[in-house]
Specification:
InterPro entries: Cyt_c_oxase-like_su1_sf (IPR036927)
Structural class: mainly alpha
Oligomer: single chain
Order of helices and strands: HHH
Organism: Spiribacter salinus
Number of helices: 3
Protein name: Nitric-oxide reductase large subunit
Keywords: Membrane, Transmembrane, Transmembrane helix
Helix content: 55-70%
Length: about 80
């Protein structure tokens, strides 16, 4: 998602500066929604990385699973 947001923002920035002829700071101000979406995507990545690290590092009790009765199946 972040890649598409930045690509689209770059396309719009190029159009607004080269074709329309707007000034750099005016264009940057109008692209603020794309930077907000980029920030949100980065936040989602950081939260996902933290959840991954938490799931790897947290020590859990080992659950003992008792083997059930075995019923042989013909043909195996």
């Amino acid at each position: 998602f972040m890649t598409f947001v930045l690509t689209f923002a770059g396309t719009i920035q190029t159009h607004m500066q080269r074709v329309v002829g707007d000034y750099y700071m005016d264009v940057q101000e109008s692209l603020s929604i794309f930077y907000l979406m980029r920030w949100g995507s980065g936040l989602a990545v950081v939260i996902g990385a933290l959840l991954f690290i938490y799931s790897i590092l947290v020590v859990r009790k080992r659950e003992v699973i008792e083997p059930g009765p075995t019923n042989p199946v013909p043909g195996e």
